[in-house]
């Protein structure tokens, strides 16, 4: 709590995959605040990012929403770091006093040493170092709100999706799955 200084916190929950982690993170911050000498004013905002098709990160990042002062960005998985980098550039436009990033999982990606938590953002002193729960191998994981093409968010645990599972829920082109869902609902 001391490392937050006198800042109010705006927790920026990165939807959709980060919602469960964000809920648990906010609950923990509230518990720490209750047990400290001072309370930390906290608000929660939401932003939706979409940067995946199947298990591949795409070059496109779609951002929906985001405004406020001081941010604690809660994201469930950081793998290539490209999405987080683009998100933080977007957040900078709001001139927050401080940005801290909390990631539940950080993938060990061979071509991404610059995005590992121990050296992330060292080029910009504006950022605090990232808080990381676990470092994991470069495998596609689902559960605990993490999805594969909108499936598996409801799992209470995190697991690696098998190749068979990827093939079963694969989307050939964006929009094709939506058409299939509409047909299935009519049946």
UniProtKB/TrEMBL annotation:
GO molecular function: hypoxanthine phosphoribosyltransferase activity; magnesium ion binding
GO biological process: GMP salvage; guanine salvage; hypoxanthine metabolic process; IMP salvage
Keyword list, A-Z: Glycosyltransferase, Transferase
Tagged with keyword Lyase: no
Domain Phosphoribosyltransferase residue range list: 3-107
Gene3D superfamilies: 3.40.50.2020
InterPro entries from the UniProt entry: HGPRT, PRTase-like, PRTase_dom
Keyword Transferase: yes
Cellular component per GO, a single term: cytosol
Name this polypeptide is given: Hypoxanthine-guanine phosphoribosyltransferase
